[in-house]
Amino acid sequence: MPEPLLTSRELSRRFGDNTAVNNVSFSIQKGEVLGFLGPNGAGKSTTMKMLSGNLAPSQGEIFINGYDLLSQPKQAKAHIGYLPEQPPLYKELTVKEFLSFCAQINQIPSSKAKLAVDTVIERCGLDNVTKRLIANLSKGFQQRVGIAQAIIHAPAVVILDEPTSGLDPIQIREIRQLIRDVANEHSVILSTHILPEVQMLCDRVQIINQGQLILSDTITGLSQHMQSSSLLIELTSPPTIDILNDINGVIKVEALRENKFRLHYQPDTDPTDILVSSAVQNQWQLKLLTPEQHSLEDVFMKIIQTEQVT
Question: I need a surface site. Which of 117, 259, 294, 305 has the fewest CB within 10 A?
Fold first, then answer.
């Protein structure tokens, strides 16, 4: 395996007696999009600020493309692109003026600055607004400018904090496509509370709650959490709940109404075949049998609630 482009080791941040982030460790490889999820106040933005060098950790280590962010901040930050939740834009400048300024502060040589500006303008779909004041742009175009300033110096790692917050559906779709394009050449850490965004954009997902990392998995692994573990059934002549409960694999039966039930089972003991056979043999007259697919929201809430209980 190649060296990760970003590594966080036992990262913590305290504000007085409050521990906002507690012992968070993870890494991200080149070309990956890592989704960072959590409820409000979970520690997402605090973690993003530490990873981008805008907030010092109380303890822990951060390495960006091999450089220690704490002991070698100048070298490490040269490999970071950052878009905070509120884009850091100078709205009195035109798009081109602002991006030219960003090229300067990122120390792009003057001989290469024009090419860098022209490249991000094209990549971010800003060709038609280069001479417009940023203040007069829509929120969606301002987000595009924000992403452009984050990638103008071709960083190894791009950190995006809630990049689609406050956008309309068309703008969200456009920004999502832009993020996928950015991920082709950079590693991306995406902090968001929009769960479908994670499924559409990310290769891996991490969930943080109360400052602690409680899940780290691939999207494929997360999809397995979403597999059906319950059946909706409707029977014209249903048996008693005790009889349904005795079907091999069934762990719980809910009576939804007179002839409709929800059967819960372990994912590796699907009782569908046995249920169909029993319904035919005992003339229960099966009218409906539907596997229930769990949404990412269901999985997210289950993980959060389980962690809070424990």
Answer: 305
Residue 301: φ, ψ to 5°? -65, -40
Through-space distance between the first and last CA atoms of the chain, rounded to whole angstroms: 35
Residue 219, token pair as written in the block: 């999207």
Return the residue matching tokens 């496509």.
177
At 294 the pLDDT is 67
Q: Are 20 and 49 in contact (CB under 8 A)?
A: no
* Segment among 31-45, 91-105, 230-244 with least mean pLDDT: 31-45
What tens digit of pLDDT does each residue of 160-215 get?
Answer: 988 988 888 888 888 989 998 888 888 999 988 777 788 888 999 998 988 999 88
Domain identity same for 168 and 254: no
70 domain-assigned: yes
Same domain, 37 and 164: yes
Entry pTM: 0.77
The SS3 assignment for 291 reads strand
Same domain, 244 and 119: no
C-alpha 49/C-alpha 193 separation (Å) is 17
Structural domain containing residue 174: 6-216
Cα–Cα distance measured from residue 132 to residue 83, given in angstroms and rounded to the nearest whole number: 21
* 54 plus 134 within the same structural domain: yes
Distance, in Å, from the CA atom of 73 to the CA atom of 98, rounded to the nearest integer, reads 24
Domain assignment of residue 163, yes or no: yes
Q: How many domains does the chain have?
A: 2
